[in-house]
Amino acid sequence: MIIKEVIDIIEDFAPPAYAEGFDNIGLLVGDESREVTGALITLDTLEATVEEAISKNCNLIISFHPIVFSGLKKLTGRNYVERTVLKAIKNDIAIYAIHTALDNQYKGVNDMIAEKLNLSDRQILIPKNDSIKKLTTFVPVKDAEKVRTALFQAGAGSIGNYDHCSFNIEGSGSFKGNEESNPVIGQKGQLHFEKEIQLGMTFPAHLKSKIVKALFDSHPYEEVAYEIHQLENLNQHLGMGMIGKLKQEISEEKFLKHVKEVFKCGIIRHSAFLNKPMQKVAVLGGSGAFAIENAKAAGADIYITADLKYHDFYKAEQKLVVADIGHYESEQYTKNLLYSFLSKKISSFALILADTNTNPIHYL
């Protein structure tokens, strides 16, 4: 396989269109046309990670965090970012970063955290908006099934937990082609009325070009009339964070001790205990102070995240417990998630979990 084929598999799982606007994901270093000798899967890409890739004959690093986040104006090796990029370039190693595209994926970072905590009834904590579109088109009755099927196969007709969804209204369409037209139905220069189906379907925003292609490939008309609109619906299977339930209630202290053991935390910082049992748990891997209000609104007993500042703990307001388990600790199992997914899709070269510990924080 070449690097581009691997990228296509990754991006089908976590579409780049759903990454946050501030992020820098995708192929950061390397030539996508090169053949892959092996892929090293890691949370972070550092010099030590590149060295591990070299030693294990991997010319592709699949990283959760992007090593290049802000723009690089120089490559002189004066800091760890420049040195890492230079080392990768010198050794013909490509670096791909997935980051918030995977954060926003339903079966992504936060589902992995929820899985480790055995949470049930999982739901996205902050469902993403502007990610569902609607196609409306007009098809001759006799061709409606063909067009509908082609659109379903391209990914249209899905919303929430449902697929193959469409709305169909029968009516009459009229048209008259000019001298340069080549009508499939009727004659040029003559007004024609045709029984048509007004066909409406929702679809994920990132599939727009694929949906439009399927429409044009399957539609019989020379000129295809269609509309695409943005829906207001929140996406139940896309967005930041996750909330779920423990199988049974547990005390605050006992639960946090369990969290500390599962995530191998050096320490857990948390707001004041409320002296009530925990059952409804909200999680968000990485920096999650922005979602404290969402966790409260969702009725969580505790919110587990990372990178909380001093004043963030006040935001608990005796309505829930907020707990900072550490950035690395909250996302450490992400590479296992990627490895598990890719192992089911790729068998033509070695997929290797990185051994390099990239946690920059140490505890005394």
- Strand fraction equals 25-35%
In which order are the strands of the major sheet placed? 5-10-12-13-14-11
Radius of gyration: 25 Å
Per the CATH scheme, the topology name of the largest domain is: Udp-n-acetylmuramoylalanyl-d-glutamate--2,6- Diaminopimelate Ligase, Chain: A, domain 1
Structural class: alpha/beta
**What would the principal axes of the Cα set say about the shape?**
globular
Rounded mean pLDDT is 96
Task: Please give a structural write-up.
By secondary structure, this protein is α/β, with parallel strands linked by helices. The protein folds into three domains: 3-99 and 333-353, NIF3 (NGG1p interacting factor 3)-like (Udp-n-acetylmuramoylalanyl-d-glutamate--2,6- Diaminopimelate Ligase, Chain: A, domain 1, 3-Layer(aba) Sandwich); 109-126 and 239-330, NIF3 (NGG1p interacting factor 3)-like (Udp-n-acetylmuramoylalanyl-d-glutamate--2,6- Diaminopimelate Ligase, Chain: A, domain 1), CATH 3.40.1390.30; 132-233, 2-Layer Sandwich (Alpha-Beta Plaits). 27% of the residues lie in helices and 28% in strands. It is built from eleven helices and 15 strands. It has a six-stranded mixed β-sheet. A five-stranded mixed β-sheet has the order 1-4-3-2-15, with helices on both faces. A four-stranded antiparallel β-sheet has the order 7-8-6-9. Helix 2 (47-55) links the parallel strand 2 (38-42) and strand 3 (60-63).
